[in-house]
Write a structure and sequence with these properties.
About 15% of the residues lie in helices and about 30% in strands. It is α+β, with helices and mostly antiparallel strands and about 120 residues long. β1 and β2 (about 15-20) form a beta hairpin. The structure holds iron/sulfur cluster. Iron/sulfur cluster binds near residues 12, 13, 14, 31 and 34.
């Protein structure tokens, strides 16, 4: 099946198409970013998911977190709810794994920044 879309990465708006999920069949893109754009669309719009996790004993009540790899965006709500119901404990280092293998995806939730202990 041929899938067509307008690339929205820049204002040029190329009409890009792909057959199935084969990246070798991508046409219509004037640059590589358009190929990447449509490929992510057919693969389920993967993206690095971000959120804020409650933290105990930190200088702030929540710490910014992100997934270690891109995941399909339709998992966003489930992962955000998992992040909201978890709790990190200060101090935390940038890149520290706060949830390992979140929801069995094989991807971790990591701290996007360091957080010192309060006091
Ligand atoms: S394929 Fe490249 S040139 Fe075309 S709209 Fe996308 S980013 Fe712009």
């Amino acid at each position: 099946m041929v899938y067509k879309t307008i690339c929205k990465v820049c204002p040029v708006g190329c009409e890009v198409s792909i057959t199935g999920k084969d990246p070798n069949t991508i046409t219509g893109n004037r640059c590589g970013r358009g190929g990447e754009y449509i490929y992510k669309q057919v693969m389920g719009k993967s993206e690095v998911l971000t959120g804020r996790m409650p933290i105990e004993g930190g200088i702030m009540s929540k710490i910014p977190v992100q997934t270690s790899e891109p995941l399909p965006s339709d998992l966003r709500d489930k992962i955000l709810s998992e992040i909201n119901s978890s709790k990190a404990v200060a101090p935390v280092k940038k890149g520290e794994v706060l949830i390992e293998n979140v929801l069995g995806t094989g991807v971790d939730v990591i701290a996007s920044r360091a957080m010192k202990k309060r006091g």
